[in-house]
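User: Is it possible to get a 3D structure for a protein together with its bound compound? The compound here is adenosine-5'-triphosphate. I've pasted both below.
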Amino acid sequence: MRFELRSVTAGYGETVALREASLVVPSGLVVALLGPNGAGKTTLLRVASGLLAPRSGQLLVDDRDVTGFSSAELTQAGLCHVTEGRSVFPSLTVRENLRMFARPGEEREALDRAVDAFPRLGERLSQIAGTMSGGEQQMLALARAYVSRASVVLLDEVSMGLAPIVVDEIFAFLDRLVADGSTSLLLVEQYVTKALAIADHVYMLDRGRIVFCGEPDELDADALASSYLGASA
Ligand SMILES: Nc1ncnc2c1ncn2[C@@H]1O[C@H](COP(=O)(O)OP(=O)(O)OP(=O)(O)O)[C@@H](O)[C@H]1O
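Assistant: Yes, that's possible. Here is the predicted structure of the complex:
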């Protein structure tokens, strides 16, 4: 599934956080979205998943205009948005969460697939999700993208605040998620080097505008470093 934002402007009250931003997530590819703090990365993902209505511009799924679709309708169309906020049902068990994420009739298979991708979840199927560690909850949130067979997965800083070993597990999972070519990713990530290593295309946002679009090896290392002063790679 090809996903596109075309000349999108969006914001909050007086604040314009995104200005005529255009971005394409081609079918089966990984797109990294970079930019300094406050550049508008989260805003772009919120518009992409229907959480924030654009003031102008269009959202397209396989060239079909889906502007104005609710987040539920975009989920139905194949989008899955995973945020740093660990989007799981905290009072349900891991097993119940996975069943909720599965497509109807695929509950059993969904459980097996999730456990295969994240063995740690398999050890905790009966645990209440809200009592798991941050890393485990994030794995469960990511498993949602996998078991729901989403076509486009939007990932907002999913490795934020996690231990390095968990971050490695998450990146190994992302490799797996895109391996068969049926899923594409739009990735906002503080681990820029890791993100660029799996990205096919990269966009850079600065103060709400797309200032670079190309392949990772075309990125000017100095520009990258100066826009990410202090960020860990
Ligand atoms: N709910 C809100 N109300 C008002 N302004 C907001 C809101 N959310 C974000 N903004 C503003 O919109 C701009 C873009 O914010 P956004 O969170 O999209 O940036 P970001 O690139 O994701 O930043 P970071 O890397 O720090 O997470 C910022 O100036 C921010 O202060």
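Residues 12, 15, 17, 35, 37-43 surround adenosine-5'-triphosphate (CB under 6 Å). Residues 164-178 form the longest helix (15 residues).
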